[in-house]
Fold:
Amino acid sequence: MSPSASSRSADGGTARPRNRTAVSCTALMVVIGVGVTACGSDGHPLSAEPYDAAQDVSFSAAVSDGKKADPDKPLEVIAKDSGGRITDVTATDAAGRYVAGELSADGGRWHSTSPLAAGAHYTVRVSTEDEDGAPGREAVDFETGVPRTKKRLDVTFGPDKGTYGVGQPVTAELSAPVKDRAARAVVERALKVRSQPAVQGAWHWVDDRNLHYRPMEYWPAHATITARSNLSGIKVAERLWGGRAKPLTLTTGDRMEAVTDAAAHSMTVYRNGEVINTLPVTTGKPGFDTRNGVKVVLGKEYFVRMRGTSIGIAEGSADSYDLPVYYATRVTWSGEYVHAAPWSTGSQGAANVSHGCTGMSTANAEWFFDTVRAGDIVKVVNSDGDMMDPFGNGFGDWNLTWDSWRKGSALVADTTEGSTPEDRLKLRPEPA
Structure:
């Protein structure tokens, strides 16, 4: 808004009223960074529309002199002692991001409660009301500066764009570590995940650089999920400011769940809650028991060479193996698969003889390979093995209860001491 703006007289000329009416107006002072920007509202109480208060505005050096405001300092709007009050304030940047704020009970002061972005253009719109209820409006534009020394915190969302199963978490990888809880809260507030249909979800800090987002339950089938960052230009910590992030859109397919009962040597496959196949399988033998719990399909490999030496089995020992494996569906990074095991067809459905993987006939493994996709759910029950770790060896995120998951958020106050993912993580390789 130009300070030279003025009201017009009835004959079209510029006129500035010299005398005030008995009804006082509300004058505003906008405090941004290094200085004070005042914008007032003055008009007749019988006006049908809010009046233009340009003649009552005085600007601080940061605005009128073209200087850029300090993003480290809060934005304030103050009603001068003229009998009126502030009724509403909105502040947005050029990207449409709103600045959160609080208005005092008496309408005398509004101040921002969320940080301003560096290098951003803002518009502040203020609504006022004088002591007789006449409305006033004012708008102020300003820009924030860029710190001289800063480190940029970029965000990379994952997985790649595409269609996934309903168990696929959204991931966010940061370009620099963030350890401080307050700084983590700034990051987390800026990382937005939305789904259609809508579901309740939360971020969980896996470590200083990685976050995972999942709903309370699995994603809905055939949902559209979007992830984006509002962190650009926002101060995260001393000398650390939000940087770039490419938004991500995912979709989900049918709800596919494969449940393996290790004690019954059987896998039941469900599509959208209905059984579509039951397969005889073999799982890990004693000493190599398959992990219990929920895993998520990580990928599919038509051929994998599996060797016992990769998991510490000495070559030539009774448990040593070196096998060509086909139709291998990966569920952990350490080497647990659902795959074809033609050498154990006699035990499938009757005994557990593998080194930790779920083995089945070649025909059944091909069917499973062709039926599932990354993000689909593979659950093992009734095994003597350990529980699948939540992080570090695939996506075991669903093995945390919802309450435990939320405690990994920087926005949840009730975080249990010693329950960080780093404390829980015990990566154990899984053989074929």
Notes: The chain has five helices and 28 strands.
